[in-house]
Amino acid sequence: MAKYLAVTQQTCSWLLAHPAVVSALSSCMEAGDFAALAKGEFSAGPLRLAGSADGGLVAAWNREYLSGTGFEVWALIRLDGTFGLDAVPTIRQQVLERQIYVANQRLQGMIIDGEFIHRTWPNGSQTCLSGRGTEARQFSVCYFEATAGFAGLSARSIILIGPGHNFNDLQSAISHEIAQIAVLAKEADSLIETKRRPLSDAPSFDSLRQSLVPAEQVDFQFHNINLQADYHSSNGVSAYETAHWSYDQWLENGVLNEAQRRVLESDVLLRHPVRVIGPAGSGKTLLMQLLAMRHLRRGMSTKTPVKILYVVHNSPMAVAISDRFRVLGGEEFLTNPEYNLRITTLSDFGRQVIGLSDSMVIDRDAQETKEFQLGQVRIALRDTLDSDPQLVSQSPLMQQVQTDEDLFNVFSHLVVSEISNAIKGRGLIDNEKGYVNSEAAISRLHGVMSPGERKIVFACFRRYHEAIFERFELLDSDDIALTLAGRLRTPLWRLKRKVEGFDFLFVDEAQLFNENERRIFSYLSNGKVPHVPIALALDEAQDLFAFSNAGLATLGITDIEDKSLPSNHRSTKEIVELAFHIIQQTTDLFSHDFPDFNSIEKVMVPSTHALAVAPYVEVCNEEQPKFGRFVMKHVQKIRANNIRQIAVVCHAETYWEELVEALSSSGMPLHVLQQRGEKLSPDQPMVILSKPAYVGGQEFDAVLSIGLEQGVAPPRIVDNIALAAAVEQQVLREMYLVVSRARYRFGALLNRGAVPNSILQGAMTDRLIKKLGTLVS
After folding, report:
1. Which pLDDT score, from 0 to 100, does residue 19 have?
2. SS3 letters for 615-684?
3. How far is C-alpha 106 from the geometric centre of its chain's CA atoms?
4. At residue 236, does pLDDT exceed 60?
5. Residue 596 has what pLDDT?
6. Beta strands of 534-592 (E only): which ranges?
7. Confidence tier at 31 by pLDDT (50, 70, 90)
8. Of the chain's two ends, which shows fewer C-beta atoms within 10 Å, N or C?
9. Distance CA 700, CA 682 (A)
10. CATH code, residues 573-772
């Protein structure tokens, strides 16, 4: 039996609205299967349970309500002992309900209902009746609240014990628990961030799992949809055959099975928001388009006007999506004001609503804008580090950032996120003290930095803001998003949204939008249904910079349901196994968030394929004077074996210029891919040079990763374990994304004297990738 249960405040609020889940949770405690969570985890719907290795603590959280700071607001409930929740089993559920209520109220600074006979005691503890019902009212629960800064706490927390009869005994017992608050809260935070373990199949969790399954999912059985939509399919239909199919052809030609038809025909968006989850090739975008077409055609047939907003990340994607809708037969919807489909980037939509001219923004394309922002942040960060050597000398982390180019580039990405979400998103533009001296963690990066390091980051922001806002007199993508959000929060928009809002919202590749941008979506519907009628397509494993992402419910999109699409993969079994091994190392993706690799074995490229080679690592030999030339020769060797499209993906900025020079001078057909979503000809032989952030949505015959070396990717970080772990998570996602682009071959090329990073070494130990001594043939 665990000693404590930790529940986040937002999860307490959610549980109060789901009494069946509380009842099932109480039943799990009675069965004693919380012990199974020391080695496994529970995941169903939005609820997650994970236990400490020693079995002393179980943490429970709703993934949609995580703050994204890495430091949650916890309620800590004693389970065992004289004043534990299990002390009086007959009233366990009533006491648990009361403790969840008390925690939710007090962690938000709200009073306890007077009927519960609340009392305050000299040691700072408080008591109230332990629950409803005759028996529970004979007992009390006792609790103690602690704010951020108490004993090193990073966020407000509360610890609760009971039931108990004697007030003096309860006060004495809570005094011994107070010292545990900070320790338990820190351990609970770490359970969210721990590397994932197998899902527990303990029988007592069945009732909890069932309580989290929506009734419609039982009726329609949406889960494990297999949408055959690309190069290979069990029906023998290729992408070339389906490229010109209309909406009716997709429904009539037998490619969509019964489960897929039910997704289209069940009108799920009329009941709740939907998140379509799946890796590349699973058909997320196609399903979104078919759903949009269904609602538009139905509106036209019933003469009910319908407006749909389809949001993409950049301009090339907007063009591609528009072309696809024309093929599906939706061209008339692009211009019809009554049955209207509006395909746009969020940046373009925001500019039009706010009324900004092109001269006031960095670039009309969102991705170009963000690339410019990153470049300006790098300049500002370098200037900040160079201008204050005394402050830098006090921080081992900043000294490393200043001298290590690879760490500097990684840290620049984190600073971009920090400026967007923590400084601008929380309105701290003119409040340096509020950012630097805050006891509560504002973001994950903020929480792992010292005040001196925060001061450097804020100084970097000031330089960046002066350049963009004052010197160039431009608005960046976050300025547009925040201005748009401010406009949409007004009473005027609440009045106008009935007419100007949208009936349905579709957001493609939602992982590419940051928190400021995601907050906007909940305001764009017209309010005809009580929920946000939105469908978001995303592969969370491709969210490369998921260092500070709040749950969707905290951004206004509540009660979202997941629809998972297993992959229809085109890689060999060996490449798929390597990709799965990598993604398993992540800390914030549970097993059911992973691609369902077991379901796609039939459509994998056979290992005996003439072009197939098992994944390998190769180190530059002594015969090659330059690493770039070694990579170029390796590419030429592969091309000689009839491999037509080869992607060279650079994980380390250190090697980028050398690779550009070597491959440009090789005479091979080189294409430098610098924008996600760019359309590449599938039948033209070429060599593609790119970075991990831009290869999403693409596929290649062979992929070569450059820079996956110990101390390079991820860069070595000394004296900051939390930041080092976070940066490793970023590299894991990059590696998964890059490996999963390869059809027949994946290789990691290392410089002379380098050793593989720990992730590759783990894969080598498990015999999922081998080290070669010579060039492969």
Report:
1. 95
2. CEEEECCCCCCCHHHHHHHHHHHHHCCCCCEEEEEECCHHHHHHHHHHHHCCCCCEEECCCCCCCCCCCC
3. 29
4. no
5. 56
6. 534-538, 561-564
7. low
8. C
9. 9
10. 3.40.50.300
AA letter at 757: N
Give 582-599 pLDDT, tens digit per residue: 988 887 665 555 555 555
For the chain, give the mean pLDDT: 89
Percentage of the chain exceeding pLDDT 70: 91
Element containing residue 31 per DSSP (H, E): helix 19-31
pLDDT score for 33: 72
Tokens of 543: 């969210």
- Alpha carbon of residue 374 to chain centroid: 20
Gyration radius (Cα) of the chain, Å: 27
Q: Per residue in 692-725, pLDDT tens?
A: 999 988 899 999 999 999 999 999 998 898 889 8
CA distance linking residue 611 with residue 700, whole number of Å: 12
Q: Compute CA distances 562 → 128, 213, 286, 493, 713, whole Å.
A: 39, 11, 17, 30, 32
- CATH class assigned to 215-359+479-564: alpha beta
Backbone angles phi, psi at 728, to 5 degrees: -60, -40
Domains of the chain, residue spans: 4-211, 215-359+479-564, 366-474, 573-772
Write the DSSP string, 224-255.
Answer: S-----SS--TT---HHHHTT--HHHHHHSS-
Strand ranges of the sheet holding 274-277, from the earlier edge strand across to the other edge: 339-345, 306-312, 504-507, 534-538, 274-277, 561-564
Tokens of 222: 């949406």
Cβ-proximal residues to 267 (8 Å cutoff; 6+ apart), any chain: none
pLDDT at 232 over 60: no
> Same topology for domains 215-359+479-564 and 573-772, yes or no?
yes
| DSSP run (H or E) holding 301 | helix 284-301
Whether the Cβ atoms of residue 60 and residue 77 lie closer than 8 Å to each other: no
- In this prediction, residue 774 has a pLDDT band, given cuts at 50, 70 and 90, of very low
For position 281, what pLDDT does the model report?
Answer: 64
610-646 pLDDT per residue, tens? 999 999 999 998 877 899 999 999 999 999 999 999 9
Confidence of residue 240 (pLDDT cuts 50, 70, 90): low
Of 725, 761, 765, 727, whose CA–CA distance to 189 is shortest? 725
How many helices (DSSP H) and strands (DSSP E) are in the chain? 28, 22
Question: Can you tell me the distance from the alpha carbon of 351 to that of 362, in angstroms, rounded to the nearest whole number?
Answer: 12
Query: Contact 475/417 with Cβ under 8 angstroms?
Result: no
Query: Which amino acid, residue 290?
Result: L
Q: Give how far Cα 708 sits from Cα of 341, 613, 694, 712, 761, Å.
A: 43, 19, 17, 7, 10
CB 255 within 8 Å of CB 286: no
| pTM check: above 0.85 | yes
Helices (DSSP H) in 510-644: which residue ranges? 515-521, 573-583, 627-639
